[in-house]
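Training component of the fellowship. As part of building independent skills, the fellow (R.M.) carried out the full modelling exercise for a liganded target. The chosen ligand was 6-O-phosphono-alpha-D-glucopyranose. The inputs are recorded below so that the supervisory panel can assess the work.
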Amino acid sequence: MKFTIVGAGSSYTPELLEEFALRRESLPVDEVMLYDINELRLNIMKGFCERFTKKLGLDVLIRSTLNLDEALEGADFVDTQIRVGGNTQRVLDEKIPLQYGLVGQETTGAGGMMKAFRTIPVMLEIARRMERLSPDGWMINYTNPTGLVTEAVTRYTKANIAGFCSGGIFPKMWAKKALGIDYSRVQYDYVGLNHMNFISNITIDGRPVSSEEFIKIAAENDSVDLELIKLLGVIPSPYLQWYYHTREKVQKVLAAPLTRGEEVQLLEKEVYEAYADPENSDKPSALAKRGGGGYSEVAMNFVNAVYNNVDTEMVVNVPNQGAVSFLPDSAVVEIPCLVNARGMSALNVPHIPPMCWGLISAVKNYESLAVESAVEGNIQKMKWALLAHPLVMDYELVEKLVPELLEANRRYLPQFKF
Ligand code: G6P
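Fellow's submitted model of the complex:
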C-alpha cells in the first residue's frame, strides 16, 4: 500500500504513523510518501518520522518529495492536511471579522470563508491530478473547512474523496471519558454539516442512555453551556458555541491577549524545535496543547474499512443525495455512512431535531455559495454567501468586509480579479 500525505510538514503527521503501528497486522503499508511545499518542514518531518518508525518498530519505507505528481502517482490513499497561507493567514481570518464585532474563527463565519477561498483551488488541483495519477485512490481530506472542500471536490472533479473531521467520534470520546465505556458500545444519530451538527438518541449496547448518563456525556462538550444542551435535548457540535453564545464568545476573544491562531504560532515554534532535534524520537509534549485529536484514528478506520472490505459505520462528509430531506442532493453533509471496499453509502438520517433545520439550511446555503464563489472568483457570490451566513448577514458590514478580506488574501486568490 502506498500512503501519501499532502501537507506532511504538519505537526500531526507522526500520529498517522502511530496508527499504522497499532494496525500493522491488518494494514500492510509499504511506503509512506511525505509531500509538502515547505522544504524545511518536510525535511524536519522526514527525519523525525524515520526516528519515530524505528522507535515504533514499524517496517515501512519513509520517502519525501517536493513533486506533487510523484507524491500522487499510484497512491492508494492520499491524506490531505494543508493550510494554505499557514497560520499567518489564519490570524487575519480571525482579526478582520473581529474588528467589526463578528466571530473571527478559522473555519466558521467570514474568516472560514476566506480559508475556503484560499484552499479550494489548491485542493481542486490535487484532485484533478489524482484523477490522472491515482484514479482508484482515495483522498482522505482533513483540510478545513472540510465540508466546503469536499463539496468543491465532489462537484467539480471525479476524484474519490472522503471528507473527515474528528467531530464524528466526539460522542464516543465523551462517553469513554465520562462513563469509562468502550467506543464500540456507543451509538447515536448524527446530522448536519461539518462544525454544524447535532447528536441525538445516544445508546449504549443498544439501550438508550439514562438522563444522568446523557448529562455526563454532554458535560464533556465544554464549549456549549450544559443548561442549553439540556434544553435542546441533543448535543450540538462544540462549534455551535459561535452561534448560541455569539456575544459572549466574541467578547472573550476580543479581551484575550492573543487569538487562537497567534497562540498556535507560538506553540508551533516549540513543536518544530522538538521535531528537529536529531536526538529526539518522542512526540513533543506541546502537541497536546493543539486542538486536533483523533484525526489519525478516524483516517485509519476508513483505510481499514476500504482496504480490508470491513463494513464500518462512520460519520463522513458526503453529497446529500436525499439523506437530509430539506437540502439539495449535491450539498455535502456530515452524516453516518456505511464504508467498505465499494466506498461510502449514506445511512438513513432517522432523527432531525426540530430546532436545527433553519441553522443547518442557512449555513449550507452560505457554504454552497462560498464554494461557487471560490471556484468562479465571483465577488457577487461572495457577498451573497456572507449575506446568507447567520454569523454575518448585515449588508453594511458585508460591503466593508469584502474589500478588506480580498486585499488581505490577494496573494492566495488568483481566481479573483480585483
Ligand atoms: C479542529 C479544527 C482544525 C484545527 C484543529 C486544531 O479540529 O477543525 O481546523 O486545526 O482543531 O486546533 P488548533 O486551534 O490547535 O489549530
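The panel noted the following from the submitted structure. The chain has a mean pLDDT of 97. The longest strand covers residues 196-204.
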